[in-house]
Amino acid sequence: MAHGILGLMRPLGSRLNASKIRLLLLCGVTEQHHTPAKWSERGFSSTQGLQDGPGESSSEDQVTVHFINRDGERLTTTAKEGQSLLEVVVNHNLAIDGFGACEGTLACSTCHLIFDKDTFQKLDAISDEELDMLDLAYGLTDTSRLGCQVCVKKSMDGLTVRVPMDVSDMRRQLEVGKQSKQ
C-alpha cells in the first residue's frame, strides 16, 4: 500500500521533502482541512504546504497548546487540528533548543515530550519505530512520546506538555568528535 501512495507522491517530489510526506501520511492532513481523514479520503496537493503561517485559519480551528520548556518557562501557542506537535513548535518558532533536529523523519529523539498520564492514555497508539527512537531519549518516562508522532486533535485544547531537561542530539556528539580530532 505504501509503495502505491509513494508512487502517487513522486510528482510532488520537487515540492515536498521526505519528512513532509511522512507527516502527511502520519497525520492524515487533507487538502481542504487540517483534520485527520480516512485512508480513502486523503487528498494530496502540491498547492498547499505543511507549514502554513500563523493566523491562516479561523479561531474555531485552533487549539491552545502549552509547552513547559527545560528552564520552566511556559510557552503558549495555538495549533491547527492535524498538525504534529513538532510542526507547532517549528511553525511558531518556539524557543526550544535543538527541538526536531531530524525534521520529523523518526531519526532522532530531539522532539521528546512528556505528557500527563490522562492525556497520554488518550493518544493514538505508539509505533515500533517511535519506541526505538524513544529508547535513545534522555529523561524517558512512562508518558514520553515524540512530538513528530503526536497529531493535534480538537479534544487536546489546553494541552500542556513538558520538554525534558536533557536532549539526545547526535549532532552535538559528532561536533565534539570532530573537534577532538583536530
Query: Radius of gyration from the CA trace?
Result: 17 Å
Pairing-aware structural class of the strands and helices? alpha+beta
Biggest sheet: strands side by side, in what order?
Answer: 2-1-5
Ranges where pLDDT stays below 50 over 5 or more residues in a row are 1-16, 18-25, 29-55, 172-176
Helix content: 25-40%
Q: What form results from the Cα inertia axes?
A: globular
Distance between the termini: 48 Å
Q: Indicate the proportion of strand residues.
A: 5-15%
Question: How would you describe what is shown here?
Answer:
There is one protein chain. With 182 residues, this protein is of the alpha+beta class. It contains six helices and five strands; from the N terminus they run ααββαβααββα. The strands form two sheets. It has a three-stranded mixed sheet with strand order 2-1-5, with no helix packed on it. A two-stranded antiparallel ribbon has the order 3-4.
Short description:
The chain is α+β, with helices and mostly antiparallel strands. Helix content is 27%, strand content 13%.
Key words describing this protein structure:
single chain; 182 residues; alpha+beta; three-stranded mixed sheet
